[in-house]
Each structure stands twice: as C-alpha cells, then as structure tokens.
Amino acid sequence: MTDSTATPPTDAELRRGIGVSPGTAYGPVVQVAPAVTAPANEAPTTDPEAALVDVKAAFDSVAADLEGRARHADDTAQQILKATALIAKDKGLHKAAGKHLTAGKGKANAISAAIEDYAAQFEALGGYFAERVTDLRDVGSRAIAAVLGVPAPGVPHFDVPSVIVAEDLAPAETATLDRALVAGIITQAGGRTSHTAILAAQMGIPAVVQCPDATQIAPGTRVAVDGDSGEVTLNPTGAYVDGLRERREKRAAALTATSGPGRTKDGHHVALLANIGGIKDAEEAGPQDLEGVGLFRTEFVFLSSDKAPTVEEQTEIYTKVFAPFGDRRVVVRTLDAGADKPLAFADLGPEENPALGRRGLRLSAERPDLLDAQLEALENARKATGADVRVMAPMVATAEEAAWFARRVRENGLPKAGVMIEVPGAALRAEHVLGDCDFGSLGTNDLAQYTMAADRMQGELSDLLDPWQPAVLDVIKAACDGAAKAGKPMGVCGEAGGDPLLALVLTGLGVGSLSMAPSKVSMVRFALSLHSLADCQGLAARALAAPTAAEAAAAVKEAAHEELSVLI
C-alpha cells in the first residue's frame, strides 16, 4: 500500500485550517444551505401589533422545533439545543423585533434587525455571550424562514457518505447529523471550543474549522479531511487517498491492541477519563474502556429550568449519571453559571464584563443555597450508587475561595473536594490554592483564554488559543509544580487532554489524569504506551523551550515515537 506521505498535495489543492476532531475522511462535498435572509424589497408593516403576533409565532415555532430535536439528541447536544431554544423564547428579543415593526420594517427585516442588535451586544460582552452569536443568528434565520413560509436553512438531503461544509454549523444542524453518512466536517469559521468542535469530537467525526474559503468549494468536489493536522485537500490523487486509508487502517489496528488503564511504557499511571454532560452521555461512556469521568458538567440540570431544581430532582439525575460507572471515579463540576450564563432564578444583574464577573464559584458564594442543594443531591446519589464521587468548583482564583468551597463540600458529607484551575492566578498559586483541597483539574480552554487575553470563540484568534502556546504551557507547569509541592494530584479536563502528543507533554509536566471526549481515549492510551515517563519529561522540556506554538508541536512530533507520529 502507499505510504501516507506519498504524493503530497500542491499548494493549490491544500487548505490549512485547525483540526478539532481527530481522524481522516474522504468524500464528496455537501454544502450546507446558507442562512435565510430578509428580502430587501419586503413591504413595510402597517399593523405592528398583528405583525408582532406573527413574529412571536415564528420564534415559538423555532423554539418548539429545537426542543423537539433536543428530545432525540445526546446529552451534550441536548444541552446546546435547549439553551438555543431559550434564545428563541427570549421576550427581550421579541420586544426588540416589535420596536422595529413599529418603525415600519417588515416582519422578516424586523427579526433580522433585532437579531443583529442582540448580536452586537453579545459580541461586545464577550465570553459565553460571544459564543452564542452563531446560535443567535441561526435562530433568526429560522424565524425569518418561518414568517416567509420557506424551508429553514440547514443540511440538505444526501444518501452517500459525504463531507459537510459550511460557514459555521449551528447546534441544530450539528446535533442532528447522521453519523453513518457524515464522513467529515469542514467549517470556514468556528474555533477550537465551538459547538461544532465539541459535538464533532463527541460523535467521533473528523472535523476541521477555520478552513479558508471553505464555502467556495463546489458541491460534489472530492476532498480529504485530516482532523489531526487540520489539512483539507481538494481533488486528492488516488495515491494520497490510499495513503490516508492505510493510515486509518494502521491507526485502527494500533488502537484495538491497547486497553486498560492509561500507563506509560514504564508503568507510570495516567488515568484516562471521559468528559460527559448528562445521563445519555454517561450511559454511552459507562461500558467503554475508561477509568471513569474527569468532568461531569452539571449545567444541563439548571439551564433548561425557569426555577431552581429541587434536591430530589437533582438526586434522581445524578444517580442515573453515576450508576453506569460502578465504583469508578466521577469528577463533578458544580454549577458553572453566572452573568455570562444567566439563569432566570439566579440573576445577579448586568455586568460590564460577565466573563470576568460573578460566575462559577463566585455565583455560589452569592447564592450558597444553590450550592448546598446541589451538594446534598450529589451526596445522596453517591450513597445510592457507591460511586467514587469527587466534586470540584469552577472559576476559583484564591486560596480563600478554595478553602470555603472545600469546607462546604465536606459539611454536606462528600469526601473529596477539588477546584478547577482555569484562572492564571490560581495556577501560579496552586500550592496554596490546593492546600485545603484534595485535587486540582486544569480547564485548559479557559486557562488559555485568560492567559492569552483571547476570546475562546473569536475564530480569528485561534492561534493565540492554541494549547501549545509556550506561555500556556508555562502556566500549566507552574500549576503542576504547585500541586506537587502541596502533595495533591493535578488533572486536565480541557480539550488539550485529548491531543495524543500534548497528552505526553502534560504527563511530563506532572499531570496525573486526562479527561476528554470518549472517542479520543484510545489514541491517548496508545501514545502513552509508547513512551516512558522520562520520555514524556523530555518532550515537555522540548515544548517549553520552543519560542512558538507551532515549533513546540513540531519539536514534540519529531521526537515522539515514530509509530505514533505516522498515525497522527
């Protein structure tokens, strides 16, 4: 068979984006139908009140459609779809459309103008709000389609395995893709932590974001997608496709040959864990060859409610999440919400910069009743299942905050308390932050965002958000060194943990557990099995010595075991 490096594509055939879900794919392009836009010649409104009734009905139909899709989606997708449905139900958005109707705009243009008003506000706020702009515009496009009586935007029908291409994929589109027919995903926009990236990795579909001029690729064009390197090749030669196929077959064979706990070549244990978002995710991950859960995001319990869920309601959900893992560990992140992820029943009021405001543990400090109810429910579920439950708080910045949280956890009967290390200040002072805690877990997505002062969802800043950035690795090293001095384990539950090369570097820096989308575990297990702990420490030193992210990744790939390098 042909080696995967044979007949490399020419510059004219090659597009370089960012690989966000590993693996390779080959197939014809299916372009996603563009958003439905308001017609320029739409007649002005003469009866604003009657028109607003139609506009509200359009938004209601969008919300109902999204909620219907959510009922048949996996947990991660379900959470995103439900949160998007809340946008369609937003009374402020309806009111904004009403103002434009009163000003004389037609129904479709009033929706468009209201959406853009909100989009400008979301982008100015940054953080979680900026992440929702794609979802917001998708809601607007669907509502416009509804008032115009035309089909909603989205993925067209196709019946052969294909590569989906779009400007960006809204959650309503990504969450309902047929895995049997979608060979790969390419988007022109998006980022490393966009919904497309998260859902593609969860579904095990190779994906590339930030691919230049992706929407200009003609439908039917044969493309090869490399979700590891981020390369997209148009009209590849047969030899090149054969090389990809050989690499895919070798990869599959190598991964089936490894199993059990994560260990380096010389037996150093690195726990391999799953990131999950709810009951369905847990039921799918439980039977897999995993050592438990490194991040259970509990937001889904709260985001779809207009009132705080009761202890009994939470206990029932957590019990169902813990049960599939038996006595394996389940690391639970307490509610990560606040002004940047507003809840109807926990609104602390507007903030100028909500991403840096009263979110995560800071909200819990203002509303300890919410935290205590959640901790009581978690303890009830732990007793009911016998799971090894470990609870950690998000957005911790100081040793005082960490100590307050640890005390609260233990007062509610839970034996193990930890903190997320996603604020550089907490990383630099990890020895003290972890003093009263049992463990730390690096949230590399937010840690990169705060270290590099770059919005996670600002696609143009993806290079700054690369976890290979030496400054980010410096901060991670500081956190691991501090944890070692405190005698406490440090894990990673951000996207960096699922990169097999970066997993080696993280192990070398002192990380003891890695949590990721379950589809990424096998390759990380394989990578660890080829290298000793000393090898990993040497690779970490190479990465830290590099002046740029690209050079750090290249240096580690060059020095890694050849059997791994040819598979990624």
Task: Write up this protein.
- Strand 7 and strand 8 form a beta hairpin.
- It is globular and about 75 Å long.
- An 8-stranded mixed beta sheet has the order 1-8-7-3-4-5-6-2. An 8-stranded parallel beta barrel has the order 9-10-11-12-13-14-15-16, surrounded by 6 helices.
- The two termini are 18 Å apart.
- It folds into 3 domains: 107 residues, Glucose Oxidase, domain 1 (3-Layer(bba) Sandwich); 101 residues, Enzyme I, Chain A, domain 2, CATH 1.10.274; 225 residues, TIM Barrel, CATH 3.20.20.
- With 568 residues, it is α/β, with parallel strands linked by helices.
- The chain contains 24 helices and 16 strands.
- The assigned structural class equals alpha/beta
Q: Portion of residues in helices? A: 40-55%
CATH topology value of the largest domain:
TIM Barrel
Tally of structural domains: 3
Helical element count? 24
Shape: globular
Question: Could you write a compact summary of the structure shown?
Answer:
With 568 residues, the chain is an alpha/beta fold. It has helices at residues 48-71, 75-89, 91-102, 107-125, 127-131, 133-148, 171-174, 195-203, 238-256, 279-285, 300-303, 311-322, 361-366, 368-385, 399-411, 424-428, 430-433, 444-452, 470-486, 500-509, 521-529, 533-545, 549-559, 562-565, and strands spanning 14-16, 18-21, 24-31, 162-166, 182-187, 207-209, 222-226, 231-234, 271-276, 292-297, 329-333, 388-393, 417-421, 439-442, 490-492, 513-516.
